[in-house]
């Protein structure tokens, strides 16, 4: 249950000295956006989350350090007794930067666009099946397909960015390049694959905010160059999910705001097609590899090796569980079984065209090279092509994948629940489905913990994914940047970002 409260949180990692009114902050991001329509963009922090937050602001947001969902433009989001019907209240008087009303109908229209299969929204699974009624201009009644005690987390994570319905209706084809939101900033200029310049929104709903005059998002694919730019003052800050880079930045005197998350880097298997529709093939690969070996070989010992989906120190980690790895003899026995049945293991591994990803593929290849009856080919693609091949077309066998989980709802549910639009590995286990449903239906931490432990134990048996490094999300900054506050899986809150005098 979420009710209205203070919209700000304590700043962390701020530069010394009072914030000055004005100035422009430059934030380095690793990839360009496909588009700024919320039905097109990736909501995670290392993807398009920062651009979206600056342009659209947030309906609600989750504090990853407390797990609490907080109000933004949305004032409250409350469920009926069974969690199937929720009532959303908006702050009155908020307007988009084009002057149109930020009202319940705009939220309804946004969610309907997410749910429309023709739009192929990454958030389709979160909006599918919602039945909505505009009660009054600031009240939206939402009936879910099934009860969900954590729908407020779904909204905060996946459905928090709302576009101007009026602007979209005027130019639906051009909207992704000419977005209109109600955020602290508006789009001024966009040079694709180079930079996006935003200017202060003079009609922003929070009086006296934003503090900055502008934000520039620079596309810097080379993360080492991005960190160098921060260290030398050519950029105000950067977003990273790389443990090695975080370590290097700290050694170079850069301040790092770090979130240790669950999920992480993993190998995802297509369990719906050969050869990984056979659990023995998946287990053979997992046992041939070593999470510690990944850390030492690919990440020079800077990244903690994962033992499962839930990271140590997070609420749902159970130290009695451990994902299988590092048993070459057991791996060989499974490979020999498959070969004796006329099915020696041959597969293509799809990975990203980045140095750590290429090194990961090389490490996997080197471990498998010492075994009989297995052959791996590597396919290296740009990030967008990997996403298209795996998550949309589902035309893959095994792939490198990353998942950032601040709370298992809604990301883990969407990824593992059988038959869902995000279940692109094809994994289906009724025991996992029941455990996920149990966790979704309860707000009791003990009930949720027991359910997620059950999920982890089945993952260790079925191995639809093999997690080798738990997730991290961080913002690195140096010098004058202050007011740094992160939400969800590592996105900045732009209403409070500032530069010191």
CATH architecture of the largest domain: 3-Layer(aba) Sandwich
Ranges where pLDDT stays below 50 over 5 or more residues in a row are: 1-14
Structural class: alpha+beta
- Approximate shape: globular
Major beta sheet, strand line-up: 9-10-11-2-12-19-13
Radius of gyration: 23 Å
Indicate how many domains the architecture comprises.
2
Helix percent band: 25-40%
- Straight-line distance between termini: 40 Å
Strand content: 15-25%
The number of helical runs is: 15
The pLDDT mean sits at 94
Q: Count of DSSP E strands? A: 23
At the fourth CATH level, what is the homologous superfamily of the largest domain?
A: Periplasmic binding protein-like II
CATH fold annotation of the largest domain:
D-Maltodextrin-Binding Protein, domain 2
Main β-sheet description:
7 strands, mixed
CATH class of the largest domain: Alpha Beta
Verbal overview:
- The structure is a single chain.
- The chain has 501 residues and is an alpha+beta fold.
- The chain folds into 2 domains: 19-238 and 474-500, D-Maltodextrin-Binding Protein, domain 2 (3-Layer(aba) Sandwich); 262-470, Roll (Dipeptide-binding Protein, domain 3).
- Helices cover 31% and strands 24% of the residues.
- The protein has helices at residues 45-56, 104-115, 124-127, 151-158, 165-170, 223-231, 243-251, 279-288, 291-298, 328-340, 355-368, 383-392, 408-416, 430-441, 445-462; strands spanning 19-20, 24-29, 60-62, 69-71, 74-79, 85-90, 131-136, 139-143, 185-191, 195-200, 214-219, 237-240, 255-260, 262-269, 345-352, 374-381, 398-405, 465-469, 472-477, 481-482, 486-487, 491-492, 498-500.
- The strands form 6 sheets. It has a 7-stranded mixed β-sheet with strand order 9-10-11-2-12-19-13, sandwiched between helices. The protein has a 5-stranded mixed β-sheet with strand order 16-15-17-14-18, with helices on both faces.
- Helix 8 packs antiparallel against helix 10, helix 9 (291-298) crosses helix 11 and helix 14 (430-441) packs antiparallel against helix 15 (445-462).
- The two termini are 40 Å apart.
- Mean pLDDT is 94; it is low at 1-14.
